[in-house]
Design a protein that fits this description.
Strand content of chain B: 15-25%
Structural class of chain B: alpha+beta
Number of helices of chain B: 3
Helix content of chain A: 25-40%
Oligomer: heterodimer
Distance between the termini of chain B: 53 Å
CATH architecture of chain A: 3-Layer(aba) Sandwich
Number of strands of chain A: 4
Helix content of chain B: 40-55%
Number of domains of chain B: 1
Number of helices of chain A: 6
Strand order of the largest sheet of chain B: 1-2
Order of helices and strands of chain A: HEHEHHHEEH
Number of domains of chain A: 1
């Protein structure tokens, strides 16, 4: 999703990232990836639970992750030491003012990647809908 | 062939249960997204300051990305 930041900003929205490690991990993560968007942490996983995100050992260790993990290794994407809950899966939501949930993508497993292009298109469509009203 | 199956039926059934038991145990149930609870939940910024998540979308829409873990 990092490569979609400029598009999201051009649509008048912001990207906000939540991680499940502590603030120290987040600081080095932000520096490493040169993030310019707001980054928050929730080690208690309360926001993850509220979002309905999955926490599953099978989602992290299951056989459906083997090939994607190999592919990531071959493309030079190595995972370092796990900083946070390794079994907590992620997700993406589009939320408008007034607690209006316009889109949700809940990852089923660690190799599950949210469709960035589709999310931006959905944001654009929702913005146009909101502008009409 | 049939007699072999009948003879070893308890063993085969036990083996099948043991194979599927980890999947049943390790699988996660489905939870619903509760936007009100999300809005009320407290997170921290990288300086450790508390922040109510709902404030992130007060002024403008956001794309909220929950990542797996750092590292």
């Amino acid at each position: 999703m990092r490569d979609k930041v400029d598009e999201i900003h051009s649509l008048g929205a912001e990207m906000v990232i939540i991680g499940n490690g502590n603030a120290q991990f987040a600081t080095s993560f932000k520096k490493k990836l040169n993030l310019t968007v707001p980054l928050y942490v929730d080690p208690s996983l309360a926001s993850y639970n509220a979002a309905g995100l999955k926490r599953t050992k099978l989602g992290t260790l299951g056989p459906r992750n083997f090939l994607p993990a190999l592919k990531a290794l071959f493309t030079g994407n190595f995972q370092g030491k796990t900083q946070g809950d390794p079994y907590q899966q992620g997700g993406v939501f589009i939320v408008f003012p007034g607690d209006r949930l316009a889109y949700s993508y809940i990852c089923k497993r660690s190799s599950d990647r949210p469709p960035g292009k589709k999310i931006v298109e959905r944001l654009r469509a929702e913005q146009q809908k909101a502008d009409k009203h | 062939m049939k007699s072999i199956f009948v003879r070893f039926r308890p063993f085969i059934i036990t083996l099948l249960i043991l194979c599927f038991l980890p999947i049943i145990v390790l699988a996660d149930g489905n939870r619903k997204t509760d936007i009100k609870a999300m809005s009320a939940s407290m997170v921290s910024d990288i300086d450790g300051k508390p922040f109510q998540l709902g404030n992130a979308w007060q002024e403008k829409p956001i794309v909220l990305v929950f990542i797996r873990h750092f590292g």
